[in-house]
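Batch job 17 of 40 flagged for manual review because the log was empty.
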Amino acid sequence: MGEIEHREVQVGGLRMHVAEQGSGPLVVLLHGFPETCYSWRHQLAALAGAGFRAVAPDQRGYGRSDRPEDPERYTLLDLVGDVIGLINALGGGRPIVIGHDWGAPVAWHTALLRPDRVAGVAGLSVPFTPRLPASPMDAWREAFGDRFYQVYFQEPGVAEAELQADVAETMRRLLIGASGDRPAPNPDGERLPAGVLPEGGGFLDTLRATDDLPAWLTPDDLDLYVAEFTRTGFTGGLNWYRNQDRNWALLAPWQGAVVTPPALYLVGTRDPVFAFPGMDRLVPNLRMFVPDLRDSVVLDGCGHWTQQERPGEVSERLIAFCRDVAEA
């Protein structure tokens, strides 16, 4: 299956860095915030060993890929366009597209908008969410005012100042504080809904972290993330959040459309996303919006960094799904 190969691919006017391993049916792996293609290191090897060609890009705004300066260049239509352009650059066909965190909406919407180009789709952490009557920011503001973290991310420069003040501390807090290994909440502290900032606090104040790294996160892993985001900053990834209302407007023609390719969903019980308002209704009814959902897997005790926290189990599930789709 060879080693992981790194190269650059021209996707439209975008220079995209990809990590690639193996040969066979194509599987595209899309990372989330704040990650890079490195988050798929375990799955690249596992999928390659199972007879697939696994390709993980640094998505637009991240890592060694281009980071457009115009914040409006980070809509879901841009991101889905990157995936279709990448598929074309890799030889075309109908790959399986898998995404985690923000990569999951990109994967789901690639399958929604271009089902002719997607053989199967899997989402980790974030389920497919149908377009709702109200825009995302209006809905979050109505529920939590300006204290929901995605609202906090909207003003350019505010979140950057917090996250870039100490990148090593930011990445440590994020990776541990959203994982299944984060400490239990203080029983005497304020119990806030998932993703809601404490009064007068910042995003990192929502996260509880231990001093020691969990077994799934090595010092070298953490150092790599710290080096990448020290070099690039966080604006590229934050611009994805700043286009949510624009996405909502652009996707109006697909109101009520469903994701038709074969699909898989995985989420951990300790993933903060799993505790977001409405998830208790969406996840059990996901097949209403993803009619060929083959399985919805809930990983007990797993946190947000699904494929990194449970690499063996997640790889096994993904390989079984990819084989099922490839053999159909």
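Reviewer: the log was empty due to a logging misconfiguration, but the result itself is present. Strands lie at 5-11, 14-21, 26-30, 53-57, 96-100, 120-124, 263-268, 293-299. Unflagging and moving on to job 18.
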